[in-house]
Design brief:
about 90 residues, 3 helices, 3 strands, globular
Length: about 90
């Protein structure tokens, strides 16, 4: 059985063009790991900067979904006020 890949979800410019369906959760998670790789783990980001990075790397116009999914999956952490974001790194 062939392992599904994310290839079909990217456009020619390397941007995520489609969010995998909920039945493809493994692909969603793989896409989120790919996307969090676009952030610098040493930086602290404000929400606007997080949104801009996400907008730069996808084309289906739902940066809030992707930001929320990265937070829910524990890839990004948000401070209690929701003003600062950081990449979560394993120690």
């Amino acid at each position: 059985m062939k392992t599904p890949t994310l290839d079909r979800y990217f456009d020619e410019a390397g941007r995520l063009k489609e969010w995998p369906s909920r039945h493809r959760r493994a692909l969603q998670i793989a896409a989120l790991h790919w996307l969090v790789g676009k952030f610098d783990a040493a930086e602290v980001y404000h929400e606007r900067a997080v949104s801009e990075i996400i907008k730069r790397w996808h084309t289906f116009d739902d940066h809030a979904l992707l930001r929320r999914e990265m937070i829910d999956l524990g890839l990004l952490a948000r401070d209690p006020l929701g003003t600062e974001y950081r990449v979560v790194t394993s120690s």
